[in-house]
Amino acid sequence: MTERKGLTPLQLDALREVGNIGSGNAAVALSTMVDKKVMLSVPRASLVPLVKVSDLVGGAETPVVGIYLHISGDASGSMLLLLEESSARELARLMVSGAEGGEMTVVEQSALQETGSILAGSYLNALSQMTGILLKPSVPGFAMDMAGAIIDFILVEISQSEDYVLVIETEFDVLQHKIRGHLILFPDLGSLDIILGRLGVKAD
């Protein structure tokens, strides 16, 4: 594909707006789910080379939790909520009443899956509304492994992927605890141009 040097200002503004709308909707849904006030913010939105995705969490060997799902519709691909393992454990404890430290329980894993599903669904809905592109998420999966292994797994699942991914940095604020994660869209080949074209101007 054509070498990309970044998003245009118009695309970047649109992507950030998508993130803000999606995060606002997700915060309401998550607050209702856990009966606690959950705030979400989007500090940054960016286009990242596929080979640099692991660097978002400190490298390919960093222990992480990934909540991943497939996307079908007018543009296809996969989406991944990537959290450093320590951050994922803290987020799970904050969102599950009575949860303690130690091994992550099935209930905590389920809460993280639901968190990823709500966040991804809210983001995709906002993206669909702004672009007119139909984007349908699948039921989410859960993985706890090194960042490189999880990303490699997703790439095996995708037949042909783009060389760049869309990254929405997300900050969770639960009971005044701030936890940072990354919501990453892995577009199938050809899908990135469709999405970016609808977010303002055609890709370079």
Notes on the structure:
The structure is a single chain. This protein has 204 residues and is of the alpha+beta class. The protein has a single domain (9-198), classed as CheC-like (Chemotaxis protein chec, 3-Layer(aba) Sandwich). 40% of the residues lie in helices and 29% in strands. Strand 7 and strand 8 form a beta hairpin. The protein is globular, with a radius of gyration of 16 Å. The mean pLDDT is 87.
Key traits:
alpha+beta; single chain; Chemotaxis protein chec; 8-stranded antiparallel sheet; 204 residues; 5 helices
CATH hierarchy, class: Alpha Beta
Shape: globular
Largest sheet: 8 strands, antiparallel
Number of helices, counting only DSSP H or I runs of 4 residues or more: 5
What is the succession of H and E elements? HEEEEHHEEHEEH
N- and C-termini, Cα separation? 10 Å
Mean pLDDT comes to 87
CATH 2nd-level architecture:
3-Layer(aba) Sandwich
Q: Could you tell me the number of beta strands?
A: 8
Give a short synopsis of this structure:
This protein has 204 residues and is an alpha+beta fold. The protein has helices spanning 9-34, 85-95, 106-131, 147-157, 191-198; strands spanning 38-41, 45-49, 63-73, 77-84, 135-137, 141-146, 164-174, 177-187.
